[in-house]
Known about the structure:
Layout: E1 2-8, H1 11-18, E2 26-32, H2 40-51, E3 60-66, H3 76-90, E4 97-105, E5 112-121, H4 136-151, H5 160-170, H6 173-176, H7 186-199, H8 203-212, E6 216-219, E7 225-228, E8 234-236, H9 237-240, H10 246-253, H11 262-275, H12 290-352, H13 357-365, H14 367-455
Amino acid sequence: MILSGSSRSGALDLALHLSNSVDNERVVISELRQSASGSIYGAFREWEVIADNTNCKKSFYSLSISPDPSQRDWTDKEWQYALDHIENKLGLFGQPRAVVFHEKIGESDGELRKHCHVVWSRINGRTLKAIHMGNDYYHLRTCTKELAKVFDLQIYYKTGKDKIEARKQSYDLGKSQGKNRDLDSAEARKNLITKLWHEHSDAKVLTATMSEQGYIIAQGNRRAFVVVDRDSQIHSLARQIDGVKTKQVKQRLGLPESYPSIEEAKDQQRIIKATAKKQPKTKARIDLTREQKLYRKLRNMAARIDRLGEARRKKLKRQITSAKIRHHDELDLLLKKQRAEEAKTLRQRYKKKPQGLAKNIQTILGYEMFLSWKWAHQDRRRVQEYATEKQLLAQSQKQELMRLNRYSDLIIKQERREAKSFERFSKKLGQEKTRSEYKRDMERVRKRVERTFSLT
Length: 456
């Protein structure tokens, strides 16, 4: 189980990463807490707008949870318990969060594995202050131990004093300085050469026996005799034999000129390495080669890119078409409502209009002129209100279309990101093909050398 988290910014990049359906076989948005939007990008934009009112530069905390695929799968209750436990440990309880599950095929083993991404907003909505995330690395390590204990899982890394002791025991000064890189350690090499030296007193027998063990005696440039190991590393022969001086080595082996040079010994080691038959490694989970796995994943990625790109654009086109139709209906409904209100006002005025003698009296007194002025003023105010309503409706409709157009830009950025992923895997496949071709060439060289040795 690996918990990896960090504070970060960039709502768009984070949303594109979490909604990447090309690298992942399946993407499931499990939870969007404290968000009015139904999409990841909309939720992150809401939280980012709140963070713009603060001085916080990294308003998000992103965490990835990767269980060990070699152990058992987690249940839904265990996932929920782990999320709540980590949230409380980090001090992010009650903060807006998004939970997304990814299912991805591993490049090495070809197995489907499930991992989780959690994103919290660090901004407290009441105080508009960012929650401090210091020492989150140690909190996550503590959570790893506690969750492993609760779920009865095994963790493979050591901590504290055990880790320091393990490093001391595994540290090799010779390896750190570029030495002792042959298949055996320095101590084992010295013990083997010392044993062969004492067992074989004849120079030719000693040379042949050491060659069988992977060590070729050669003439040195600055020393009389050296040993070339399997990795073409050079070692002084006198220093590889305990209790023996350089004079004793010269007395037993004779003239250095009768032995191959260092370059000739390295060539012999390369030939031996090329002709050595490698035992095929058994694969427990899958029999496909790495090249075949990458090719299969690349083919699935290409199919998903075509399918998802077409589906996204069709969905956006349907949304824009339905929005335009709805906007037209809303405008017709508003105009019908305004005409109905205007007709109702005219009917009420007609009923209130005096007739006969009352009309003549109101005309003489000037009341009819006052009513005409009052109704004209009401008409002007009503026309202004109607224009304002139409303007507000047009603005809201325009904002909705602009939002849909922004989603079109988001689709373009998503496709660019998916194209980069496809290009990255294509390069991997090309490198793997180059490696495979090199291995095949080396196999042909090995077979040619074997035929040459068999003929001679």
